[in-house]
Write a structure and sequence with these properties.
Keywords: Signal. Residues 1-24 form the signal peptide. This is DUF1570 domain-containing protein. It comes from Sphingomonas parva. Helices cover 56% and strands 10% of the residues. The chain has 22 helices and 10 strands. The chain has a 7-stranded mixed sheet with strand order 1-5-6-4-3-2-10. A 3-stranded antiparallel sheet has the order 7-8-9. Helix 12 (288-300) runs parallel beside helix 14 (325-338). It is globular, with a radius of gyration of 23 Å. It folds into 2 domains: 8-274, Neutral Protease, domain 2; 387-505, Serine Threonine Protein Phosphatase 5, Tetratricopeptide repeat (Alpha Horseshoe), CATH 1.25.40. The longest helix has 22 residues, at 44-65. By secondary structure, the chain is an alpha+beta fold.
Length: 505
């Protein structure tokens, strides 16, 4: 699983985010399906085709992992961008970075640069969606090699008109395996991934091979399940592995023999071959051309250095589209989070006069007071006002997880914070967005304080073996040990360090 607390940049070529070119007159469309909300400047037929492919991939992941739960109401936003310049308006990235994924308390999103060759074969975007899926539906004590190996395994899926082929070799990974000396097997099995260079590429290649090996043999699959159960029970990693798979050198020899004999793949029918997935496509207001990506940037977080320029950009664009309610909405967000709270308040009041039950506007009213409280010597009066608006926002949309996260934050100065009510708020936020590390860590901390140790352990297991953030894994490991030791010593719940547009980067 990915480290979701800070944005993970997707380095290298994002091989073909989506097919086609943007219309001559740039018009943003929003497509909402069962599991995704996709923003694109593609034509409506092309956008529908792209969303159908994403839904087919989600259906494939469900089938492969045995997921039967209803879809999460927290749908994954995916932004398909025309070029690298658009990508850099959202996040300052290098020229070799073609997309990124982030999951923060302000929002979750995947940003991908469109290419002419299409989504089929876009292993990096599919890799990130796999991480998102596993954190939502199958989080547990997977070792780092399987976290990455599984995502690599499913990301090589190829989409034919009526079928999905999976288990295919990855050209990139097999090239590393053929041409470079492998990492020692113990390093792959029992260590975090190297952070850079050929060692990192080898770790991913060998992890892909390991996942391919254990997932395509039922007997090995059963051994893998035994291994994971032992890790969940707290058995030391090396012992858990050898108890399940036997002596490590013998396992390594068998793995290398498997790599030499060639890979098999499987074909399954695409769900959309029977019926196109239901979706709603909406043409966004003209102001979206200037403001959609600015709005997305504020949702996933703005750094202190970038905030003034973004605020000025939003103000100028909103002035050009002063008659459009959408422009006023984005401007209100910018003023509340980055600029003049009083101006933001006035804008929100005018918008709410027309749509008094708009959950997003009610949430931003709460954020106006929460941001003020963060800056105040005595935050409680502002936090108290924030709670009123967050309660209204939650009533309007019970599935908006940022409302729940920030409501819990507003209780930190209140005697009611250490309570079952706060815990229930955080548990619901975690159910909606288990990808957000701040939510998981805060929820687990309060579960421990409330002596609900087993539940805390379940939440912490995925983070304690997080392959992308060693600091997070260490902090989660400390909490995990406290849960296992039934240690209720007070622990400070993490302050909001994630981007909600308040300049926390």
């Amino acid at each position: 699983m990915a480290s979701w607390k800070t944005a993970r940049l997707v380095a290298g070529a994002l091989a073909a985010a989506f097919a086609g070119t943007a219309p001559a007159a740039a018009e943003w469309r929003r497509a909402e399906s069962a599991n995704f909300i996709v923003y694109s400047e593609e034509s409506e037929p092309k956008l529908r085709e792209q969303v159908a492919l994403l839904e087919d991939y989600h259906d494939f992941l469900r089938s492969l992992t045995g997921v039967n739960e209803p879809p999460s109401p927290n749908k994954l936003p995916v932004y398909i961008l025309r070029n690298h310049r658009q990508l850099e308006t959202v996040r300052d990235v290098g020229s070799s970075v073609a997309g990124f994924y982030t999951a923060n308390s302000g929002g979750i999103g995947a940003f991908a640069q469109a290419r002419s060759s299409g989504l089929d074969g876009d292993e990096i975007l599919l890799h990130e969606i796999a991480h998102h899926f596993m954190m939502q539906y199958r989080p547990t004590a997977y070792p780092p090699w399987f976290v990455e190996g599984f995502a690599e395994y499913v990301a090589t899926a190829r989409f034919k008109p009526n079928a999905i082929e999976f288990g295919l070799p990855s050209d990139n990974r097999t090239s590393w395996l053929r041409n470079v000396q492998w990492l020692p097997i113990e390093e792959v099995l029992f260590s975090l991934p190297p952070r850079r260079g050929p060692q990192m590429a080898l770790f991913y290649a060998q992890s892909w091979l390991l996942a391919h090996y254990v997932m395509r043999d039922p007997a090995l699959g059963n051994k893998f399940k035994s291994y994971i159960r032992a890790r969940v029970d707290g058995v030391e990693n090396r012992k858990a592995f050898t108890d399940a798979f036997g002596e490590i050198r013998a396992f390594d020899r068998a793995l290398q023999a498997y790599a030499r004999k060639g890979m098999t793949f499987t074909s399954r029918k695409r769900a959309s071959a029977a019926a196109a997935p239901a979706m709603t496509v909406t043409l966004l207001p003209r102001a979206a051309e200037d403001l959609l990506l600015a709005e997305a940037t504020m949702q996933i977080g703005v750094g202190d250095k970038e905030a003034p320029a973004l605020l000025e950009r939003v103000r100028r664009a909103a002035a050009r589209h002063s008659s459009e309610p959408y422009a006023q909405r984005v401007l209100a967000r910018a003023e509340v989070l980055l600029g003049d709270g009083a101006k933001g308040d006035a804008l929100l009041d005018a918008l709410l006069a027309k749509t008094p039950k708009d959950a997003e506007l009610l949430y931003l009213k709460g954020m106006r007071h929460l941001v003020a409280g963060r800056k105040a010597d005595d935050p409680e009066p502002s936090f108290k006002q924030a709670r009123i608006w967050f309660a209204r926002a939650h009533k309007a949309d019970k599935d908006h997880f940022p409302t729940l996260v920030r409501y819990a934050e507003s209780l930190r100065t209140d005697a009611r914070f250490d309570s079952d009510n706060t815990l229930n708020i955080l548990l619901l936020a975690h159910d909606l967005a288990p990808q957000v590390d701040e939510v998981t860590m805060n929820t687990a901390s309060l579960l421990i304080a409330r002596k609900r140790f087993d539940e805390a352990e379940t939440l912490l297991l995925p983070l304690a073996s997080n392959p992308h953030n060693e600091g997070l894994a260490a902090a989660a490991g400390v909490l995990l040990q406290r849960a296992r030791n039934k240690n209720t010593a007070p622990a400070e719940v993490a302050a909001p360090t994630e981007a909600d547009g308040a300049g926390t980067r």
